[in-house]
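Task 17 of the worksheet. Students: predict the tertiary structure of the chain below and write it out as structure tokens. Keep your answer in the requested format; marks are given for formatting as well as content.
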Amino acid sequence: MRNRSLGTRLLTCVLCFFMMFEWPVQAEGLGGSNWANHRAVGGDFNGMGWSSVLYQPLAGAFHVGVLLSQADGSLAPAVDWSKTQDGVDWSGKTHRVVVGDFTGNGRDAVLLQGEPGFTSAVFVPGPRGKHYKEVPQGPFSTIGNLTVATHHLVVGDFAGNGRDDLFLQASYSGGADGVTLAGPHGGFRNLAASFDGGALGLAWSDLTTSIVAGDFPGDGRAELLLRSRGETGSSACCHLVRLSRSGVPERIVQSWTGDHLGIDWASTAHRVVVADLTGDGRDDLLLQPRTPTGHVEVLLSGPSGKIGGLTARWSAMTGGVDWSTESYELVPDQVTTPSGGGSVLMVPRVVGLPYRRAFFGPTGQLLKVETVVAPSGPYGPENRARIRPCQAGPGASPQVVMAPVADRSAGWGWRGRRAGPPLPRRRRAAQAVLRPRRSGRCRASSR
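Model answer:
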């Protein structure tokens, strides 16, 4: 997949996103095809609504592996292929993996953003998330090479048509930003908008600003949340920006300071996770602490799309679970739970920790945390192992209840999806009642 010309290098996402969720799994003394030397990327690859996990090989690993979500929310090995299969190098040395529902069929596709000297491509999963086919892309030489070195890609449905698009954030000051819209088959052919950094009087480059996307008004169109990497205290640090359908920045919806609501909004203190935690069709914010000594904070969006006050807050170490980024990455599910709220898959960053899932109520409160049945060790069905639920330690919060996902006899089962065409994003539910959510949902992101 070597680059054939400077004009044929494409893009990739992240966050936001949603969004892109990627992180290395850390362990000592483990080699071959196992969790320790892979980067995990969360996404809904089979349309179940529960999040699945793709493991990208890093140094010393030779295979790509996918753990697909099952009907009960558990994870099972689905497919394993060589990192250079069909002439495509999937390793972290050559590409950054990002995900988004670029076709609008309810299943996340994979976009490989090339490192300098490598092309980029979109791969669309098959009906069950087990097979991938490459979608041809167009040239983007008008805005730059679009490699990992030139742009950070933010995933969101900016056109409101049910397909995730890409916001192209320049990696350096003075670079060009822009938006490219996804075509019906998941390809990106041309730029819908391009502008130089400084639009609306804001700093846009990845060097100075962290950007995530979310559908905060609940109208099916993603907005951008810009968070300064340097401003703290009483200085303005965060700006919620509305884009036109073509991707041009239109207006600042809301701004706040670095100490707003008594929260430290610095990127060194929290990771911003965008997800619909209440099940009302509007994305909310969960601030994940960087260290175990911090606090998790939840802020909900209102009918106008503005971020409201602090709804919930708990210590990073709660119920025997470390919520900090040192132990877990949080990947929002695309479901409405029986309680009426949303849920988040907790993917371990350290080998030995179990996968978990956190459930939220319709007012944003944390209801419980369950341990997810998942394999451990090398990829493959013969290595599946059930993870026992962890017990809450002394001083555990009463709002956190540990239970295995498989034990859902009390109404936590999955009802089969109805026949017909795929449901739009966020229209899947984890209960007998299939509660519709708005179509055109952007892939929730974090950064």
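Marker's comment: The mean pLDDT is 77. The chain has no helices and 29 strands.
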